Amino acid sequence: MISVDHLTKRYGRHIAVDDVSFHCRPGTVTGFLGPNGAGKSTTLRMICGLTPPTAGAATVGGQPYRQLPNPGQEVGVLLDASAQHAGRTGREALTVAADTMGVERDEVTAKLDLVGLDATAARRRVRAYSLGMRQRLGLAHALLGDPRVLILDEPANGLDPEGIFWMRGLLRDFADRGGTVLLSSHLLREVEAVADRLVVIGGGRVVAQGDKDDLLSGAGTRVQARNQQALRRALDSAGLDVVSDTDGGLLVHAEAEAVGQAAADAGVALTELRPADTGGLEQLFLSLTAGGPTTTAEPTTSGEPTAAGEPTREDAR
Ligand SMILES: Nc1ncnc2c1ncn2[C@@H]1O[C@H](COP(=O)(O)OP(=O)(O)OP(=O)(O)O)[C@@H](O)[C@H]1O
């Protein structure tokens, strides 16, 4: 179980992540979806204790990541496949990690096999690896301690279509055996094929979340009011499930009649009430992507640690 509660990260005046909350349950793959700069990596780094939140908290298995006694055996993390020790061979990199984690060395061979790095590849230095091979090595590292939770940032980057298909199968199988997977991507199609649930982030804020099928079917009602906050309060207090909340209105997982009644009961005047279009999520995602990052950030000078297969416990700030 991963719990993210009201996480916020500010860099100076720029809000990279703004009050983000969601939960990932065992047995599910959660796709964390958003265009470049939306705040995905920053959120994942806060979950993994690499970036301190400005506000809010995240736990994995009920504890903050930094308080897990042996994190590698509970959470497999792959945040940046290119940040691996270039001078080591693939096998050496995994062996060092296995020794650090207290994992049997036999597991190194087993995990190399699992991710499709053969003996020749395992003998090559990481600097000679393609990005796809680094992703595979990073995944082997994440799986090394047989964790129950996987947190992966854009793991399909650099993989060829066969590799993407293979990774989907691996993640699906991991979740079907009771594992929890949180998987970020900027491509809807990439997570659509494997995720059970989606959390969509744009400009640092969660703009939609829920079961993938519900979000993609576009089932429900699109509603707008001049006072959208009052409308949101009315729908929440009527117990209606708001699946997305953007400047263009709300998408509610309920019949139009129930939505209209809730608004009327609260005295909120509507400007729009209609059945949602199919492909509502796709439209939402396209509009986020078209807009790009809503704000620009000033880079910080401190630089934070990167996480490849080996999530570091250092913190630069
Ligand atoms: N160390 C930092 N200092 C200042 N701004 C930052 C820092 N790290 C991230 N940001 C800003 O925070 C916002 C969110 O970045 P983040 O990397 O989390 O997005 P993302 O969704 O993972 O996108 P991408 O896939 O492009 O990495 C961006 O505007 C980014 O420029």
TrEMBL record:
Recorded GO MF terms: ATP binding; ATP hydrolysis activity
Superkingdom: Bacteria
Region called Disordered, residue ranges: 288-317
InterPro entries per the UniProt record, alphabetical: AAA+_ATPase, ABC_transporter-like_ATP-bd, P-loop_NTPase
Record keywords, A-Z: ATP-binding, Nucleotide-binding, Transport
Domain ABC transporter span(s) in chain numbering: 2-228
Signal sequence, start to end: none
Compositional bias of kind Low complexity: 289-308
Listed transmembrane segments: none
Keyword ATP-binding attributed: yes
Family the UniProt entry places it in: Belongs to the ABC transporter superfamily.
Name of the protein in its database record: ABC transporter
